[in-house]
Amino acid sequence: MVTTMTSCEYSCSSSGFVFDEGMKKDFLESGYIMIRNLLDEEEVGKIRTSLETSEDLQNNAFGVADENRKASKLVIWKHPGNDVTGMLGRCEKVVSTCEKLLGGEVYHYHTKLMMKEPLTGGSFIWHQDYGYWYHNGFLTPDMMTVFIAVDKCIKENGCLEIIRGSHKCGRIEHKKVGGQTGADIERVELIKKNFPVEYVEMNPGDALFFHSNLLHASNANNSDLRRWTLLSCYCKASNDTVTPHCLPSYTPLRKVPDSAIRECTSLDCSGKEFMDPEKDINIKSTSEDKSKAS
Asked: Which 8-state DSSP code applies to residue 140?
């Protein structure tokens, strides 16, 4: 049975974000915390406008097809940069929260814009981020993702699904399925019988902070509603990769105050260094996928 997530929820007040020690307890126990309204209406509006108007982002998008040949579009960049999205990836309420949850300094591993367009956006099979980051030379799963809703995310447009507490199951074997890398489905089915599966419905500006071993997936977008999300991934500094690969190793992260999101006027994407999917062994876009992204 799949239920809508109601646990491990916190809210950012109008006076600003304050870390609660209960957040770390929930993160360790459930594998995630939800911060409602991490971005207020003005902040998320500014982020959305920057994403929609950036030619650099759209020019670097590529498609990843699911088993039904529906494709979601992705853009991945290696460094936060100094534009509005860079301020988000470097701000205190994102980075310092990750540091408190992981227990030490973190660095920005990469950020991706996930675009599930109406009626065409594809599904993503069950997987753990560390399921494939493991192959990038990280010896421990001291890594996490901050999943921020740019648009409303509901069941109808393919919101995230998670298996609460599944990070405790350790890393599961993964294999290529179409253009994606997914977890051993037999193992996943056993886990689903013993851990709760939850829909993660979100309003714009809500943020899900989750552990790299938390199992998650999402259905295709069969609705008329767009579903764009930003996913910033962080690694504990002490867990630097031992194998050079297509994404960054430890790079000191210069944090900025939360106010930088509102104050930033730059849309310059230089310094982000967009990723070429052909150089990532975990995401191989086909020529057909690329045509869908254009």
From this structure: S
